[in-house]
Design brief:
Blueprint: E1 4-8, H1 23-36, E2 40-43, H2 56-67, E3 71-74, E4 77-78, H3 84-97, E5 102-107, H4 112-118, H5 125-140, E6 145-148, E7 153-157, E8 171-174, H6 179-188, E9 191-194, H7 200-217, E10 223-232, H8 236-255, H9 272-282, E11 284-286, H10 288-300, E12 305-309, H11 317-331
Parallel strand pairs: 1-2, 1-12, 2-3, 3-5, 4-5, 5-8, 8-9, 9-10, 10-11, 10-12
Antiparallel strand pairs: 6-7
């Protein structure tokens, strides 16, 4: 089966931008992605903060018609901040609105201000996340559900709206690029979306942890998914300059919020120098030929999906569409 590609569209905007003014541009990107042979669309989630952010589930519902036959997913929906009954109903609704093409990408979250404002301890993240995934799966089965957990309890209840997809949308896990994250993804998910800042060398290590845990649990091989940042230009140095500028501005905004900064999982948020090192090691700010080589290397590691983001902060629509066009004409043919 050929390697599949997704597009992560920008749904968090620089301060002062009115997102209503960008909706037509997002629709144009989705249609261009469909035309380019991209198979899925992804949007992120944050609450509060300085960047106006369109929330992912209603946005995906609004883009479903433009997406045609593409899959639509969250990358990532911050699961511990919400009640799993609400989440189960919400994603079941999205599954109906997209004709059974929804993917539930569930993340742990990392910003302290979000958890504090929701009145939820960050110490409870893992427990709430684990229970939520298990309860959501039970509800999506359509069967009468009883669940007794530390954080959530449901007695003899059935979901009001069973999803179109049998058993519900696939659950793709967002987890840090370390052994515990890999094992959690292997245990709970139908796939693991590995973050974009993970180097190819580190990726091989954590995928090894993931595969080993799946094998230990007797689970069949799953999709293997990694995110990558992409700017394409005939001039490799110009692509690098464009990418570093726009992605760097976004990284600075993200780094303004408290996070568990220890370890490689958050290295890209720590200093400008570290962010640039991560970009050169992992991001694809380059020419099409070099991009093909890097993507082929990922394919050789067994990756089945690459989710590409082509826009950050104040990078303009014209550059996004130019990257999409080069991807369509000069990159994708190498994978067909």
């Amino acid at each position: 089966m050929p390697l599949k590609f997704g597009l992560a569209i920008m749904n968090d905007f620089p301060p002062g931008v009115v997102p209503a003014s960008r909706i037509s541009m997002l629709r144009e990107q989705v249609r261009a992605a469909s035309d380019a042979g991209i198979s899925s669309i992804w949007v992120l989630q944050h609450y509060l903060g300085s960047m106006p952010t369109l929330q992912p589930v209603p946005l995906l519902a609004a883009l479903a018609q433009d997406a045609g036959e593409m899959t639509l997913g969250t990358n990532m929906f911050i699961l511990p901040l919400r009640h799993p009954v609400e989440v189960a109903e919400e994603f079941a609704t999205l599954d109906h609105l997209t004709g059974g093409r929804a993917v539930a990408g569930f993340g742990m979250g990392y910003r302290e201000n979000e958890f504090e404002s929701f009145g939820i301890s960050m110490d409870d993240r893992v427990g709430r996340y684990d229970e939520s995934v298990r309860l959501i799966r039970q509800l999506w089965s359509g069967a009468e559900t009883t669940f007794e957990g530390e954080h959530f309890k449901v007695k003899d209840q059935r979901i009001s709206l069973a999803p179109i997809q049998d058993g519900g949308p696939p659950i793709w896990i967002g987890a840090g690029p370390h052994k515990k994250g890999a094992e959690r993804a292997a245990r709970l998910g139908d796939a693991w979306i590995v973050p974009p800042h993970v180097t190819p060398e580190r990726l091989a290590v954590v995928l090894g942890h993931y595969r080993a845990e799946r094998e230990r649990l007797g689970k069949e091989t799953s999709d293997l998914v990694v995110r990558r940042e992409l700017v394409l230009d005939a001039d490799r140095e110009r692509a690098r300059e464009i990418g570093l500028s726009a992605r760097g501005a976004l990284t600075q905004r993200y780094a303004a919020y408290n996070a568990p900064q220890g370890g490689d999982a958050y290295k890209h948020l720590q200093t400008d120098k570290a962010a640039e090192e991560v970009a050169d090691a992992s991001y694809l700010f380059t020419d099409p030929v070099t991009a093909v080589g890097a993507l082929k290397d990922l394919e050789s590691q067994g990756l089945t999906h690459i989710v590409l983001r082509m826009q950050w902060y104040d990078l303009g629509q014209e550059q996004v569409l130019a990257t999409l066009e080069k991807f369509k004409n000069e990159v994708l043919p190498a994978f067909r």
